[in-house]
User: What shape does this take?
Amino acid sequence: MGTYRNPVKHAAVRRVDAGIADREGEFTARWRERLDRLETDPVSLIEFACGSANDYRTFAEAGLGPHLDYLGVDLSEKNIANARRRHPEARFEVGDILRLPPDDGAFDYVVASDIFEHLSPEAMERALDEAMRLAREGLILTFFNMADAPDHEVRRRRAYHWNTLSRPRIEDRLDGGGFGTRLVIPVARWLQRVHGYPHSYNRRAWTIVAEREPRIVPAVPHHLEEPSA
Assistant: This one.
């Protein structure tokens, strides 16, 4: 769920932890029970900036691992070594998400979580273009710092960035890449409106699922419509 040095933000994360503690295991068990019964061909997937199997650990716990032909890439050799040790059943490789060797459309889906805000605007656009190049079907993208603003807000912090990305500009670029079927979720508003859960610690978190043709998007019960009067 992330860590913060700022004590206020850290306390907010701890409140979320406490709020879901009783249900987290139940949620994972439900996913595993359903996925264990599923018989289907694996989905090929590449994850950008996979870290030390940060997300794949959750995939495995929830029973999703056997249904994926998975490749995780990260620039850090240490992260990849950690990931391989933790999950020898999956593939992890050192790689630069700005220039990856696989052919166009080599994977069904590309997953990228909380990475684009840390890149320069030029590198961010190049990484997004690379994701679109590799994705035969679609993209699953999460952002930790996005806003309904007309332009990106660029903030350099020593060796990396902490930018606020413009949701409209990201969507425009996805349109240009042929990913016109999209599900766009402002996570905190979705949790509050749909589930009555007010404790999201990050009001700037968004998830975007973008596809060339509708496959996942129509099946997701997002229900983010404005409540009727």
Residues 7-36 form the longest helix (30 residues).
